[in-house]
């Protein structure tokens, strides 16, 4: 791929302070300002700990990777916070991060998780960075298009371990629908080359056709969960997994041409899922880690944040009825604000997983903070 060789060149590209393209605060209403203020406070808390993972209970090498998905989702949230009128240091932090990374993606060209950081780079290209910063990501995407993975979407874990599952070369797990499609589609918007968009939409619908359960209006995390049931014989639909999807759709839809067949189909899917998510919210505002098993479930802030983001966005976009859905978004936001711990961290974040698990008050993670920033930005726009 010879991509790393580009890093010194791209790191030297001029990165200017955000100018007129950077959103300016516009005297938001008090509730909107409170949401942005709380998000900025949390963002700054997390920015001070990007190289110290001691606050994350199950930190791994992936957690420490500044180009990996765990940190990348934080930066995706930062882009929406910047767009919502946050102070200039939020946008500057994104630009500084991209320059430090040499504007390169993580190492696996096919893996959707490793495309996530590209969403922040593409944002930076429109907000003060040299437009050429998208070159490394574009080279990776060109490689994928020129050498499409020829594997099916069935998830089989070989003896060598989860990360060697062959299907990971495609979007065979529902989280991927947050990680990759917005980057591919935005690449088309910035380059005028619609091949990236067409690839993303074809893969999105292939994944949806495979993992979406129309009877439940929810996605299985991957094919290993098709037949799994809990002790009450209920299907297992992971909260954060479906949160990745609904929030990912909310980030993808604005990138599609209004009235296009793909956009209309995705809008219908969004509304169908949102109705199910509305019905599974608990009275305390959280969503349970296993969506169909609310009893005795812990607070869980990452899925809750993704749903709050998506539902608030859907109201503002005119896809969801405000009277029916605004109370859902507000309850979700209230739950998220209660998740902030005395030391400033966002608590109750389920750790890296692929299924529902227990959660503790002190559990936090970069991606949970990113989801909180997405939620705050959408709530402010209400």
UniProtKB/TrEMBL annotation:
Q: Quick one: signal sequence residues?
A: 1-19
Instruction: Read off the InterPro entries from this record.
Output: 6-hairpin_glycosidase_sf, 6hp_glycosidase-like_sf, Glyco_hydro_88, PolySaccharide_Degr_Enz
The terms under GO molecular function for this entry are:
hydrolase activity
Q: Where does this protein come from, organism-wise?
A: Niveispirillum cyanobacteriorum
Q: Which residues form a coiled coil?
A: none
Does this UniProt record's set of keywords contain Plastid?
no
Any single biological process term in GO:
carbohydrate metabolic process
Q: What is this protein's name?
A: Glycosyl hydrolase family 88
Carries keyword Hydrolase?
Answer: yes
Question: Out of the domains of life, which is the source?
Answer: Bacteria
Q: Which UniProt keywords apply?
A: Hydrolase, Plasmid, Signal
Q: Which Pfam families match?
A: Glyco_hydro_88
Q: What is the lineage of its organism?
A: Bacteria, Pseudomonadati, Pseudomonadota, Alphaproteobacteria, Rhodospirillales
